[in-house]
């Protein structure tokens, strides 16, 4: 009997390369040249040209002749709009927009993808001092209010903690240093109902987060309010925490279960 590893389906490599280009452009605020795409994805120039050309046929990627660079095209916009409808995000967006208007601060809906928290929707603050971010941005779970909120109401929190190194990689000087510190924060999050990121992910930014729970009380997403540290003294935390919890409960009505979080 042949026990050799199963070969990936034909065309898998081409599909993964195309998805790699799309993910790369999702995380870019502007455009990327073909050499930059090839370099970032470790592709030959010829391969990058073929992949980008195939994506351009259906409008998923568009070429800017003035800059000789590429950005997401109208086909990607249509896909994104369809996905928002299917996943209930069209109805969830007004919830975070209302919190944004009431507080003046940026508000995200995030999901979990393995060990990362991923921004799904964002209502950006219009105040002059704010932290710029975009949907698709990814950060380690242990550095973010969203990650801690989702971990606090997950079934795999203990296995996640056990899989972390004893000393955690720091994004800022305030990032939690050990698994023990994270475990303590998860317990505190469950006690008070919301999580806190105290400049642990981005220097100068504090956040509060609340888990969006399914019918079994498990996190399927999170609502996060991001605030420059100068506008978020300790005494304001409970108020924004309560706003995040209320918004998360409202968003939970619109997001279907088991469609987002990947452990």
Automatic annotation (TrEMBL):
The residues covered by the HTH iclR-type domain are 12-74
In this chain the IclR-ED domain maps to 75-257
**What residues form the membrane-spanning segments?**
none
- Known Gene3D superfamilies for this protein? 3.30.450.40, Winged helix-like DNA-binding domain superfamily/Winged helix DNA-binding domain
Decide whether keyword DNA-binding is in the record: yes
Pfam families, per the entry: HTH_IclR, IclR_C
Query: One of this protein's GO BP terms?
Result: negative regulation of DNA-templated transcription
Keywords attached to this Swiss-Prot or TrEMBL record, sorted alphabetically, are: DNA-binding, Transcription, Transcription regulation
Q: What's the protein called, per UniProt?
A: IclR family acetate operon transcriptional repressor
Lineage here is: Bacteria, Bacillati, Actinomycetota, Actinomycetes, Pseudonocardiales
């Amino acid at each position: 009997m042949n026990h050799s590893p199963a070969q990936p389906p034909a065309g898998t490599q081409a599909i993964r390369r195309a998805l790699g280009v799309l993910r790369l452009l999702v995380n870019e605020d502007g455009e990327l040249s073909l050499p930059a795409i090839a370099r970032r994805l470790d592709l030959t120039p010829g391969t990058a040209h073929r992949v980008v050309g195939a994506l351009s046929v259906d409008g998923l990627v568009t070429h800017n002749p003035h800059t000789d660079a590429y950005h997401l095209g109208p086909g990607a916009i249509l896909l994104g709009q369809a996905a928002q409808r299917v996943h209930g995000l069209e109805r969830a967006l007004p919830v975070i927009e209302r919190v944004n208007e009431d507080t003046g601060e940026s508000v995200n809906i995030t999901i979990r993808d393995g060990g990362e928290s991923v921004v799904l929707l964002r209502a950006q603050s219009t105040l002059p001092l704010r932290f710029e971010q975009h949907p698709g941005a990814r950060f380690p779970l242990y550095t973010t209010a969203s990650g801690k909120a989702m971990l606090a109401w997950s079934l795999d929190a203990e296995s996640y903690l056990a899989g972390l190194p004893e000393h955690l990689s720091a994004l800022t000087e305030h990032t939690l240093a050990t698994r023990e510190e994270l475990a303590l924060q998860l317990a505190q999050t469950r006690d008070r109902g919301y999580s806190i990121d105290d400049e642990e992910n981005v220097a100068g930014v504090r956040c509060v987060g609340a888990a969006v729970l399914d019918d079994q009380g498990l996190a399927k997403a999170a609502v996060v309010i991001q605030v420059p540290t100068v506008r978020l003294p300790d005494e304001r935390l409970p108020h924004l925490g309560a706003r995040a919890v209320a918004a998360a409960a409202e968003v939970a009505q619109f997001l279907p279960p088991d469609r987002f979080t990947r452990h």
